[in-house]
Amino acid sequence: MSSKPSEVDASAGRNVPLDDVSYKILTVLRDNGRISIAALADLVGISRASAYSRVEALVRDGVITGFSARVDPARAGLSICALVFVTVHPQSWVPFREKVVAMPDVEYCVITTGEHDAMVLIRATDVGGVHEFATGVIAMLPEVRTVVSVVVLDEVVRKPFVLPTDIPERPETSRLGMTRWTPAAAGRDAMAARG
């Protein structure tokens, strides 16, 4: 099993059809990424050759993007976790993304819908580190309009990834009651037609 990620094209890994055996392999690897191919094959119920070729195919297809150790951030010296919600000026996405990717203290960043445009997860040695990042780093970017930071009190669930097989069947119910819909401004359709 290769320990380095393979080079795949940009479309690889998107909607790759997986069977039950592939999902079993991914479930086992999620719990123990260092498992031997022989042990993996035994747990999944396939031959070693099949386990090896399937893992290599999952890597080649971009489903598996790499293998790494999971580290307890607090035990590694980063006991404070914070979520920094960022609103970005229009037309500033490309430079904002480039700058965030280059920030070594950013563990995770996602573009979001709703009140803010992005959520950045950072870790620090103390609350002062969160303050320095929020006010002295991210808020100082010319692409950023507003910043709201929230210190995380407890990380309740943190999984390396979730698979479709993890999601339980749920009865069909009306989901509209749980969603807040914001209607378009009056005349918006007419404005779009004129534009």
From TrEMBL:
- InterPro entries, alphabetically? ArsR-like_HTH, AsnC-type_HTH_dom, Dimeric_a/b-barrel, Tscrpt_reg_AsnC-like, Tscrpt_reg_AsnC/Lrp_C, Tscrpt_reg_HTH_AsnC-type_CS, WH-like_DNA-bd_sf, WH_DNA-bd_sf
GO cellular component terms, A-Z: cytosol
GO MF annotations, alphabetized: sequence-specific DNA binding
Keyword line: DNA-binding, Transcription, Transcription regulation
Q: Name one GO biological process term.
A: response to amino acid
In this protein, which residues make up the domain named HTH asnC-type? Answer: 18-79
Question: Protein name, please?
Answer: Lrp/AsnC family transcriptional regulator
Highest taxon of source: Bacteria
